[in-house]
């Protein structure tokens, strides 16, 4: 069983690595944002720089989970290779596990440039245990976005998946305070912000990087979003299976 | 003989479309069975039932003594992917490794690639392969897990003669060592070159299930057409149609039919005898039960 997970993960990672531009894309925008905004304006403030690093690192990781996953899942469904895989002697579990592992590997890698910029050009500081804790929060925070990505990929065509995931991605990133601190955003945005799943993750990351107290509403809503996204993804999976393979 | 795969009264509907209509078929160990039929006949649906991609609407499908949806059963089979869907960015050897990882009993990679003339291409990315090379890779993948039963869906459509012979050799040697093959094609020639037993499918039903020679005789029919007002009783007619004053007869023995036509004294004109296409032969088989004008 586990050897099949390895085989499927290896396969998906090879596919990703052969098109390295897709890897760079996830890392590019947050790294540029670091250089353009954080380094000049908050680079000398250790607390602000560390918080911004956490937010932007998750911004990149989230694009891999939501946009990347929805597009690859939608594309895979359109290829005749996909029904062939179902004739191989394996259930859906290895492929699913591999999909999650490969997405995590790609998203975590995409955070490296942001962390490098932060370490080299700002006063952002962290300790190894905090960095690990932050990594754990990122992985946990990615779960609802991976589930949303699966859901979109399972109900839309690949072209629609690109559009739908981007339309969801940018507003969620901005509303959750990943791009700019929520305190400087307009009042109505501040009011909505705790109900967006990104805010919950941001609260966790800020608590770890700056020792702030996380907002309870945002954390509860993150849990609610995770459950809703899981239900939606499970529903979409069964619907897709029923259409193509029953 | 052991039955490796079977359907019993299997029916499959897609919405209102009846793709398979109460098909009962046994595939026994060591057989090389050709599934012959026009496009849309139900060949792919039948294969999809056997390999677990689809479930029958009613009836039973068995694979290696169990259900095709059980992954453990599928360890004993090999399936060909459509070569248009092979992952473009992976190398030939990587795809073989990936597929082989699913099987407990694997053919060594070098041996598998050599058998299908792919040994020089192991390091090549699939995106850079020609159509024929992709097809050979796709067929090779069906044999990666040392299967007992292999399903080959249109294995050589669109290949040049040499590539086709290479593939046929690979399939024959597998069969010679005791392997069982279910092969679909809409080319009679391919079925003749490889299969011993032919199952003719059309309109979702099995029309004939016999040796290659017997089916060859059935489908080797001629079309006799002429203008006549009255049609006498004629021998050997497997299909008949009337268009205005013209009568189209499909027959296994055109010589005898014409002799009988003349002998009957019926008046006719514009006699024409043409070989039938495979498609027409299928139609003749389909309308066999209702062969009267």
Structure description:
The complex is a heterodimer of chains A (246) and B (293). In chain A, helix 2 runs parallel beside helix 5, helix 3 (46-78) runs antiparallel to helix 5 (92-110) and helix 3 runs antiparallel to helix 10. Chain A has one domain (2-245). Chain A has 11 helices and no strands. Chain A starts with a helix and ends with a helix. The longest helix of chain A has 33 residues, at 46-78. The relative contact order of chain A is 0.14. Chain A has 246 residues and is mainly alpha-helical. Chain B is of the alpha/beta class. Chain B folds into 2 domains: 3-216, Rossmann fold (3-Layer(aba) Sandwich), CATH 3.40.50; 221-275, no CATH class. Chain B contains 10 helices and 13 strands. Chain B has helices at residues 43-50, 71-74, 92-100, 109-115, 131-142, 161-176, 188-194, 212-219, 254-263, 278-286, and strands at 3-14, 17-28, 32-36, 58-63, 77-79, 149-153, 180-185, 197-202, 205-211, 222-227, 237-243, 246-251, 269-275. The radius of gyration of chain B is 22 Å and the shape is elongated. In chain B, 40% of the residues are buried. The interface between A and B is medium-sized, with 25 and 30 residues.
């Amino acid at each position: 069983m586990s050897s099949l997970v390895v085989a499927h993960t290896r396969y998906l990672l090879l596919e990703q690595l052969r098109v390295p531009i897709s890897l760079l894309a996830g890392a590019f925008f947050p790294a540029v944002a670091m250089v353009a905004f954080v380094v000049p304006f908050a680079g000398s403030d250790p607390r602000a720089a560390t918080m911004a690093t956490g937010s932007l690192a998750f911004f990149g990781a989230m694009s891999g989970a939501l946009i990347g996953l929805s597009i690859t899942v939608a594309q895979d469904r359109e290829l005749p290779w996909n029904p062939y895989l179902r004739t191989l002697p394996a259930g859906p579990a290895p492929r699913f596990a591999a999909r999650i592992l490969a997405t995590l590997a790609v998203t975590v890698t995409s955070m490296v440039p942001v962390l490098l910029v932060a370490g080299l050009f700002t006063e952002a500081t962290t300790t190894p245990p905090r960095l690990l804790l932050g990594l754990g929060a990122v992985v946990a925070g990615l779960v609802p976005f991976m589930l949303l990505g699966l859901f979109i990929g399972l109900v839309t065509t690949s072209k629609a998946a690109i559009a739908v995931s981007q339309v969801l991605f940018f507003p969620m990133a901005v509303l959750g305070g990943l791009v700019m601190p929520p305190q400087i955003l307009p009042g109505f945005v501040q009011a909505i912000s705790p109900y967006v799943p990104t805010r919950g993750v941001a609260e966790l990351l800020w608590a770890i990087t700056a020792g702030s107290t996380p907002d309870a509403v945002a954390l509860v809503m993150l849990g609610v979003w995770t459950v809703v996204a899981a239900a939606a993804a499970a529903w979409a999976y069964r619907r897709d299976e029923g259409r193509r393979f029953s | 003989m052991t039955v490796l795969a079977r359907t019993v009264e299997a029916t499959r509907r897609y919405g209102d479309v009846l793709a398979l209509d109460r098909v009962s078929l046994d595939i026994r160990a060591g057989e090389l069975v050709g599934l012959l039929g026009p496009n849309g006949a139900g060949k792919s649906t039948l294969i999809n039932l056997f390999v677990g991609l689809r479930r029958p609407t009613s009836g039973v499908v068995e694979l290696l003594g169990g259900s095709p949806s059980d992954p453990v059963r599928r360890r004993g089979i090999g399936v060909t992917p459509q070569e248009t869907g092979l992952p473009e960015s992976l190398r030939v050897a990587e795809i073989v490794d990936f597929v082989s990882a699913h099987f407990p009993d694997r053919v060594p990679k070098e041996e598998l690639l050599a058998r299908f003339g792919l040994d020089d291409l192991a390091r090549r990315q699939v995106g850079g392969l020609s159509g024929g090379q992709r097809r050979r890779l796709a067929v090779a993948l069906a044999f990666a897990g040392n299967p007992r039963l292999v399903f080959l869906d249109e294995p050589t459509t669109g290949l040049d003669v040499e590539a086709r012979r290479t593939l046929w050799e690979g399939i024959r040697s597998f069969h010679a060592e005791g392997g069982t093959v279910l092969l679909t094609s809409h080319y009679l020639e391919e079925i003749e070159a490889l299969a011993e037993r032919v199952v003719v499918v059309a309109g979702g039903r099995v029309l004939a299930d016999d040796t290659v020679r017997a089916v060859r005789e059935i489908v080797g029919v001629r079309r006799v057409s002429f203008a006549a007002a009255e049609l006498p009783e004629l021998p050997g007619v497997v299909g008949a149609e009337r268009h205005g004053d013209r009568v189209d007869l499909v027959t296994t023995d055109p010589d005898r039919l014409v002799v009988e036509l003349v002998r009957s004294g019926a008046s006719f004109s514009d006699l024409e005898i043409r070989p039938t296409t495979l498609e027409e032969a299928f139609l003749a088989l389909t309308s066999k039960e209702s062969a009267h004008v």
